[in-house]
Amino acid sequence: MAVPYDKHFAQKLLLDMLRIRRMEEKCAELYGEQKIRGFLHLYIGEEACAVGSMHALKPADNIVATYREHGHALVRGVSMNAIMAEMFGKSAGCSRGRGGSMHLFDAATRFYGGDAIVGGGLPLAVGFALADKLQGKQRVTACFFGEGAMAEGAFHESMNLAALWQLPVLFCCENNLYAMGTALDRSEAQADLCAKAASYGVPTMKTDGMDVVAVHEAMQLAARHVRDGLGPFFLELQTYRFRAHSMFDPELYRDKAEVEQWKQRGPLHTFSARLKAEGKLTEAEFLALDAQANAEVQASVDFAEAAEWEPVADLLKDVHTP
Amino acid sequence: MKMTYREAIRQAMHEALAADPRVFLMGEDVGMYGGAYACSKGFLDEFGAERIRDTPLSELGFVGAGIGAALGGMWPIVEVMTVNFSLLALDQIVNTAAALRHMSGGQFSVPLVLRMATGAGRQLAAQHSHSLENWYAHIPGIKVLAPATIADARGMLGPALADPDPVAIFEHAQLYNMEGELPENWRCDIATAAVRRAGTDISLITYGGSLPKTLAAAGQLAAEGINAEVIDLRVLRPLDTATIAASVRKTHKAVVVDEGWKRGSLAAEVMACIVENCFFDLDAPVARVCSEEVPIPYAKHMEEAALPQPAKIVAAVKGVMGK
Hints:
A: six-stranded parallel sheet, B: Rossmann fold, 2 domains
C-alpha cells in the first residue's frame, strides 16, 4: 500500500520516530555515565505506535500512559528539554525531577503520566472519560498500556466500566509480546487480546505496530468511533521492543535470532525505504531529518546539564495543594 | 433538631449534590438499593442515574475512575461499602491518589472524597469488622477523617469536598443508628481535634466508634471521683498534636483508646506524639486500650471481648492513676 500522506506529513512522522530513537539512544548512553538513574525503560523498536497514535489525536484529548512513555510524551508535545531534565532529576523537568523516567507528566498537553503500576492507568482513563461525559465534553481519553496489563484485574474492571457506561475511552494496547521477561503465551490462557477485549462488547482491531501508517490509520478510525460517542474502542498494536526491558535486564528469556528477525521490520528503516521508493524522501533529506533529531537531543542534554536541582527545602512542597 | 448519624451523613451528601453540579456519588448499591447503610436513600430518584451511579463490584476500577474523574474536573464522592473491601482499591488510593500531586511536580490535584464504613460490633466477623483507618493515616498525600458525632457526620463532608486533595472519611458502622441533637452550628473544620468532655485528672484520647465508649467510661470514672478529659481526634491525618499536647500538659496522664489492633496502631502514633511533645509533663506511663490481636470473631461474647469496652477503659485509667 502506498503511503497515503503528502511528503510533508510523511516526513513529519519519520522525524518524530527519529526524535524518539535518538533521544533514547542518548538516554542509554547517559545511563552508562550515571547521569540518568533509577529504572529506564526504552521504547526503541516501538516508535511507530506512539507516533502513529499521537498524530491521530487532538490537543483537547487526554493521554494516560505507562512507565515506557518517553516517546508518547515527546510526540504529544512535551519538550525534549523538559523530558531530558526530568530524567536527570532536575527541577526544570516536566515533573520537577520528582518522577524521573517512569513518571512524565504535563498539564499543558494533557499528558497524565507516566504510571508505573501495570494496569494502573486504566481506571484513571475511565474516570477522565466519565468526567468528560458528565460535563458534555467531546474528548477522547487515549489510554496506552502493554499486553502485560491485560492480566491485571484493573484491565477487566476498566473495560467493563467503560463498556457498561459507554465512555469515550480508546484503549490502546501495545503488545510487545513480553511482560518484562514473561512471554504472552506463558501468562495468558487466551493469547488473542482482541478476543479478551471483545468479551466486553467493545469493538476491537489489531494492527501492525511496526508500521506507522497502519497505526495512524487504525488510530484515526478508533478515535473517530470514540469521539462520535459510540463508546470505547480497543486497539491492539502488534510491536516489539528491541532493547532489554530495563537497564537491569540480562534478556535470558528470548532468542537473539527472534530479536534480529523483528529488527528486520524496524519502523524507521522500513518507513524510510517506503518513502524513498515513492519519491517522498531523498537520502539527503533523511540525513537532514536525522541531524535535526540529533541536534535536538544534544540541546536537551545541554539544557538538562545546566538546569538546577530542586532545593531540598522544597522536599515537602506539593504533598498537598497549597 | 434530633437525628441519626445516618441522616446527618445523608443530609450532608444531599446538600453537596444540590449545591454543585460537579459533585456526584458513585459506589456499590448507592442508587437503587439506597446505600448499604441507607445513606443515599431516595437520591437516585432525585438526582438521576448519571449523578447517583451504581457500580459493579470493582473497587479498584471505580475508585480509580473516581480519581480520574476528579482530575477531569468533577468532585466525586466514592462510597466503598467497608474498609475491608477498600483493600481491593488500595493500589489506586496509595499509588495514584496520594502520590499524584507530589510525583507530578505539583501539577495535578485530586479532589476526591472516599467514604467507607469501618469497625466492629455487629457480629460481622473477620472480613467486615476491622478498623484499618490507621493504614490510610500512614500515607502522605491523603487526609483521613473519622466523624464520631452527629455534628461531624453532618459537617465534615462539605470541607472534605472543598479540599483540593483526596480525603478519606471513615464512618464507624456502630454509629449509623446513633441518635442525637444536631447543634445549630454544625459547620466544622477538618483540621483539629475536639475536647468532648473537659476534665483535669487524665486525658482519654480516642476517635470514631470508640468515642461513645470512652465518654461512657468517663461518666463511670466521674462517679468514682476521677475527672477525665476526653479528646476526639476527628482528623487522623494530619494529627492535631497541639490539642493532644495541651490536654496532657494539663492532666499529666493519658490513656489512648483505639479500635485498631494494638501493635502498630494509631494509638501507638498518639503515644509517640505525647512522648515527643510532653515527656516531662507526664506523671505516669501512657496506656492504651485497643482491639485484641485477633481477627474479629463472630460470636457476640468473643467479639465484645476482642474490642475496647468501657470497663477496659476504666480499668486502664485506674492502672495509670495507681488506684
